[in-house]
Amino acid sequence: MLLRSMSAENYRSLRAIRMDLGRVNLFVGENGAGKSNLYRSLQLVQAAVRGTFAHEIAAEGGMASALWTGKRRPNEPVRIRLEAELMDEERAITFRYRIEAGLRPPAAAGFAFEPQVKAEELTIETGRRPVTVMKRAGPGISVRNESGRMAEHPEQALTSETAIALIGDAGHYPEVGTFRRAVSQWRFFHGFRSDRDSALRQPCLAVTAPLLDEDGANMAAVFATLATTRQDTVDLDRAVAEAFGGARLTIPEPEEFASYGLVFPQFPKRVFQPRELSDGQIRFLALAAALLSYRTPPLIALNEPEASLHPDMLPPLAGMIARAAGTSQLWIVTHSERLAREIEARCGVRAKRVIRNDGATWIEGMRLTGEMEDEDE
Ligand SMILES: Nc1ncnc2c1ncn2[C@@H]1O[C@H](COP(=O)(O)OP(=O)(O)O)[C@@H](O)[C@H]1O
Ligand SMILES: [Mg+2]
């Protein structure tokens, strides 16, 4: 399932932006250009599907902070609007999900920092014209039933809730479940903690881990799963050797806890424990676990993965990214021109340059429709 396009309005510096997406989406740009805002806008679509939208907005400072601060057209409602289009290529089904959220009217229910979800819609398209399968206006939700009619859903949504999460598998469109599962499985990785108390430096419960948790807490179990369940750590070993001058990752057979260590060629008899490794080494290992895990998420998004990595680790990082691109769609945000060049060369894509235009985030050379001017070159 491929994310085909994404649009956002009035979310932070995203005044109104729509972009077509491909398998590997690489964003570069200056500090403050809005790269993280783009990344977050996608994460919020996932939050809507998972039912954590209000929580996510409240945690980033509430609606007053999240809404675009700049000029608006007169009479334009003050609303964050996000839309994502996904395509199931095998079955040629397109899904379009849209959510609109605004401020709480002065005397309404709900809490001050929460968003008020005003509207949502999910449509599917299978070659013919699009069919609405779920629509929400205010608290009322309607869902398309087996006779193909829109029927009122028995439950009403609270203003802070998203209907897409609330309806579950209601309605008679198994495709809706496919859509929700795909979006829920996206993985976002941003700023792994690498300080002394970081989860990445602790052993973790030995529970089979096909995917890395977003905080990296099950990293040792991800490695153990590759070593024990798949019995294939070739890509992982290659990346580690390349990044750390010929070092080797040791993954003991786990009992109650899973752990790992590194052996460097200078000290072949000594296994370095996670607490002894540098921040950069720890973070590189976490990225390896994110990109080379047993199972592959439909989409992996990395926000500034180069942070605190030594420049020599950038080519192996790009190598892992190219490897992951074989099985997952990628959304990579970077501040590093070097990393961008390495990814461009390995994945055969051109980076999108994120810029500010009158305070609003934009992509250099992009038309209003979201297509790139030089797309057909
Ligand atoms: N509500 C808002 N309205 C307009 N701009 C905002 C809003 N919130 C944050 N910004 C702007 O977004 C920028 C930060 O964007 P961010 O995505 O973090 O940048 P980066 O490209 O460095 O990741 C800041 O310049 C800030 O001024
Ligand atoms: Mg950023």
Automatic annotation (TrEMBL):
It comes from the Bacteria. One of its GO terms (molecular function) is ATP hydrolysis activity. Signal peptide: none annotated. Residues 270-338 form the ATPase AAA-type core domain. GO terms for biological process: DNA synthesis involved in DNA repair; double-strand break repair. It holds the Pfam family AAA_21. PANTHER family: DNA REPLICATION AND REPAIR PROTEIN RECF, SLR1056 PROTEIN. This is Putative ATPase. It comes from Shinella fusca.
